[in-house]
């Protein structure tokens, strides 16, 4: 493994598509709220990708130190990248990736503060920083990791992207942040099932360990079903245009995971269900942002 590939591994490069879709959703919502800025969206994307890479790298370093990475059964969607157990780079290098990503995110945040002022951006940045810097050591070990993942890599990036456009968060941005929260919550939750034994041995406390597989699976189902319902509710209440309903279409990809959660939660999660869960997340954010942006462009 080359050094470049190793650094990309601890940053979990394939998973960095998530912030791209979150910014797309937030920018589309901002456009519908009449607050669009291409420059602000590009800089928000840079900062968010850097922070997501930082979370991933810190998590990889922590899992190696705690021994979780040496016990987990890896899948294409869970169990870490395997970079550190392979010896490709030392743990300290992964921490360095996390620090570098955090600094880039901080610099982007400082730039936006100079452009739109401290409030409410400072609050969004502070909560996002907390979600990044202490997620692995605190939230993932106290049963609230899924909630803070939903905030830090779901709702906050969407509303934050809208906020940095013109210094305000419009109603469409808040509405777009809700399904983003639910899907990122579920993205992490489903990936915790294969890691159950390793997480328990490594001292983590997540919903799978806290509630048991069957109850945690029902939580997954509830959040999954609520996602398209929140989009439909926003349309019915006037917060979204009818075109935003396109964001409900990718729910089809979540069906295999929902079916597993209802019928076989004690069995291993099928790889196609995990893949569908990821596609559902990315496609929903993207299509919702596209629907909102197109509606804004057409004046609908």
What layout of secondary structure does this protein have?
Elements: H1 3-10, H2 17-32, H3 38-66, H4 68-71, H5 91-116, H6 121-133, H7 145-166, H8 171-192, H9 196-201, H10 207-211, H11 213-237, H12 251-263, H13 271-298
How is this structure best described in words?
The protein is mainly α. The protein has a single domain (3-298), classed as Farnesyl Diphosphate Synthase (Orthogonal Bundle), CATH 1.10.600. It is 72% helix and 0% strand.
The gist of it:
With 300 residues, the chain is mostly helical. It contains 13 helices and no strands.
CATH architectural category: Orthogonal Bundle
User: SSE string, helix = H, strand = E?
Assistant: HHHHHHHHHHHHH
Instruction: Report the portion of residues in β strands.
Output: under 5%
Structural class: mainly alpha
Overall mean pLDDT stands at 94
Distance between the termini: 51 Å
CA-based shape: globular
**CATH fold descriptor:** Farnesyl Diphosphate Synthase
Number of domains: 1
Q: What is the rounded Rg? A: 19 Å
Overall number of strands: 0
Helicity level: over 70%
Report the biggest beta sheet as strand number plus sense, adding barrel if it closes. Answer: none
Q: Which regions are unreliable across 5 or more consecutive residues at pLDDT < 50?
A: none
- The CATH class designation is Mainly Alpha
Helical element count? 13
């Amino acid at each position: 493994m080359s050094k470049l590939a190793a650094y990309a591994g601890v940053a979990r490069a394939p998973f960095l598509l998530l912030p791209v879709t979150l910014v797309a959703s937030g920018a589309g919502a901002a456009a519908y709220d009449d607050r669009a800025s291409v420059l602000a969206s590009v800089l928000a994307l840079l900062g968010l990708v850097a922070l997501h890479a930082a979370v991933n790298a810190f998590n990889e370093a922590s899992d190696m130190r705690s021994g979780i990475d040496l016990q987990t059964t890896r899948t294409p969607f869970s169990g870490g990248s395997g970079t550190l157990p392979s010896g490709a780079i030392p743990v300290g290098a992964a921490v360095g990736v996390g620090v570098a990503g955090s600094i880039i995110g901080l610099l982007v945040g400082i730039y936006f503060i100079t452009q739109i002022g401290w409030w409410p951006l400072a609050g969004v940045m502070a909560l996002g920083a907390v979600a990044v810097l202490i997620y692995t050591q605190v939230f993932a070990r106290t049963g609230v990791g899924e909630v803070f993942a939903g905030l830090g890599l779901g709702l906050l990036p969407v509303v934050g992207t809208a906020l940095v456009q013109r210094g305000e968060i419009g109603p469409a941005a808040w509405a777009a942040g809700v399904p983003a929260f639910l899907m990122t919550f579920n993205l992490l939750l489903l990936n915790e099932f294969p890691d159950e034994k390793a997480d328990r041995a490594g001292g983590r406390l997540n919903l799978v360990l806290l509630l048991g597989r069957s109850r945690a699976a029902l939580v997954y189902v509830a959040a999954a079903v609520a996602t398209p319902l929140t989009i439909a509710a926003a349309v019915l209440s006037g917060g979204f245009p009818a075109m935003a309903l396109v964001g409900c279409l990718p729910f089809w990809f979540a069906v295999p995971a929902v079916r597993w959660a209802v019928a076989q939660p004690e069995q291993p999660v099928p790889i196609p269900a995990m893949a569908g869960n990821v596609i559902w997340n990315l496609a929903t954010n993207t299509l919702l942002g596209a629907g909102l942006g197109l509606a804004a462009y057409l004046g609908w």
